[in-house]
Amino acid sequence: MNKKNYWYVGLRFTWSLLIIFCYFLGNKLVIPYVDISKVFLIGGASDSIIFANAITGGNLRQLSLFSLGLSPWMSAMLIWQMIVVTKMFGCDKLPVKYQETAQMIMTATISIIQALVIVLKATFIEGYSTPQVMVVSVLVLVAGTFLMVWLSDLNAAYGVGGSMMLIIPGMIAYLPQDVMDTLTQVPLESYWFIIIGIITVVLFLSSIIFEKAKYRIPINKVSIHNRFKKYSYYEMNLNPAGGMPVMYAMTIVAIPQYVFILLQVFYPENTLLQRISEEINIGTPGWFLIYFLIIVLLGYSFAFINVNPDKVAENMMKQGEYIYGIYPGKDTRKYITGLLWRFSFVGNIYLIMMAFLPILLVIKDPRLIRLGMIPGIFLIFNGMVLQIENEVQAMIVNTKYKI
Fold this sequence. Notes:
single chain; 403 residues; mainly alpha; three-stranded antiparallel beta sheet; globular
C-alpha cells in the first residue's frame, strides 16, 4: 500500500474518530432536570430493554441525548425492508425518496413511543416533574435519535464503518462494566465461572471460524480463456445472515415491551395489560418463544436480503457467467435459492447456539442476561469488524486503480 493509500484511509479513520468523539460527548449530555442519582427502572423489562439499547448505540444507564441510540431507526429500517421484500402494497415500486421518507416517519413513531416510556418512568428532580419538562425531554430524546442517524450517514460518506462505528464503541465501553455489575448483583458459585468461561472461549473461537467460512460455487466466465479460469467461483457465506439477526432480534423484542408499558401508564387498572406485560418480560416462556421465533425469522430474512437470488442470476447473465451444469437465468436462480435455504438453516442453528442457548441463564436469574448475551455480542462484533475490514480493503483497491 503506497503513501496515497495510507493518507486516504487515514483521513477516513480520522473522520470516524471525530464522529465517535461526538457520540461519547452526546452520551454525557444528560437530559435536563433528571435525577441522575436514581437508578432507571421500568419494571421487569428493565434489563432486556437496557441491553437492547446498549447493543444499538444507546445508553439507558443515564438519560442523555443519545439514550435511545439507533434502535428506533434500525427497527424502522428492518420493518420497511420486510415490506419491500414481500412487495406489500406495491412499496417496492415507490421512488427512493418516498421510501426514505416512510422510513423516517416509522423511525419518528417508534422513537416517540420509546421516549415516552423512558420519560414517564424516569425520576425527575423534585418540583420539575411537570408536563412541559416531560414533553421537552421526549423531544430531546427523539432529536438525539435523528442526530445519531445523521452522524451515521456522515460516517458512511466520509468515514469508515457507517452506523457500526456508533455501535461498537458503546459495546466495548460498557461490556466490562455490565459484567462486573452482574457479578456484583448476582453472586455465583465458583464452578459457574469455570463453565461460563469455557463456553465463552469456545463460542468466541467458533464465531471467528464460522463467520469466515464460505462455500465456493465454480462458475464459467465466457470472457476468460487462460489458466485463471479454474479460479473463478461465486462465494456464499455459510451463515449468510451474519450477526445482524441477533442485534435486530433484541431490538424487535423490546418494541412490544415498550408498547405495553406505555399502555399500562395510561390504563394502570387494566389487569389484562398487566398480565400480557408480565408474560413477555425477560425470563418468561412467552419472551423466550418470541425471541426464538424472531431470531429464526430474521436469520432467513437477512440471508435473502444479503444474497438476492434474482439479482445474482441476473448479474451472472449480464457478465456472461454461468454455474457448471446449471442453465443461466431461471435455473440459476432456483439453484442459488436452494443453497440459500440450506445455508440459512445451518446459519440459524449457529445463531441459536450463539444467541439463544446462552441466554437461558436468565432462568436462574433475569439479571444474568448480560452474561448470557456475551456470545451474541461476540457474534455481532465479529460481523461488524469483518465488514469494516472488507470496506477498508475495497477503499485501498479503489484508490489504487482510481483514474
